[in-house]
Amino acid sequence: MQSNDQKPPMTSTYSIVGYEPETEKLGVAAQSKFLAIGSIVPYIKWNVGAVATQAQINPTYGPSTLQLLERGNDPEEIVETLTALDSGSVLRQVGIVDAEGRSATYTGEQCIEWAGGICGENYAAQGNLLVNGRTIEEMVKTFKTEEGSLADRLLSSLFAAEEAGGDRRGKQSASLLVYKEGGGYGGFTNKYIDLRVDDSEKPIEDLADLLELFKLYYVESDVEHTPLEGDTLCEVQMLLSDLGYYKGEPSCVFDEKFRQALIDFYHQEDFEQRYPGENTIPQDILQYLRERAHIMEGS
């Protein structure tokens, strides 16, 4: 474990590391008065574990933790190993959750108050340079009681932390990283969600907006699907015509020309991950189509 005697600035941050046993997802969410916090705090390897390293950050904590988890060490043992090898450990903060839900959180005694963490089954929450300890308490409470996906729960935890006090210096950046098996684009990798707001006056709100866009483009949700027949078929055909995907006069007939226009729309608007086949259209995609056509009409 390397330790740099030159002391970089303390990164005032609060973060939460979480595991969702039902889906085997692992995630980390963080917020800080620091530029691009998502570039240095979270580390995840699917089926191994997730880490948040912060305060006076030692970036080697991330990959070192994942290596030790793969070797079978539990999170508490890893904290002891990392800090024993690091002469600057009194300035570090780290949260760890493994793929069995075991967790640990560590706060060095020289981290700037308020500083501390809480961990339990499937989560580890920690922060430094905070307004108060309620910031962490509310983050944990929300994570444990919130409904929805792991990403939704992690994001809601950031909102709760900010509402309870948050970072003493203010707000600047926020991030959300989630891994699940085959969750990457096209199913080729396990990196499912990787969203960052690097510099903003309202980073958590902007992160929430990005998550909604992510769901629209990539997530097969339980949103209602409408059959492409009758009035809906006619409307979609006309909307595709307005946007230039359907060529010629709309016929309200599901023919080869309409099928190709539909495929072109899904691909060119980056909805290929949401394509349900030819017989239905998801309600949120239909609403997007209506809004796009309305914008084109007004331009």
UniProtKB/TrEMBL annotation:
Q: Does the keyword Oxidoreductase apply?
A: no
Domain spans labelled Putative peptidoglycan binding: 221-289
Task: Provide the alphabetized UniProt keywords.
Answer: Hydrolase
Hydrolase is among the record's keywords? yes
Pfam families according to UniProt? DUF1028 (PF06267), PG_binding_2 (PF08823)
Q: Name one GO molecular function term.
A: hydrolase activity
Kindly provide the name given to this protein in its UniProt entry.
Answer: Uncharacterized conserved protein, Ntn-hydrolase superfamily
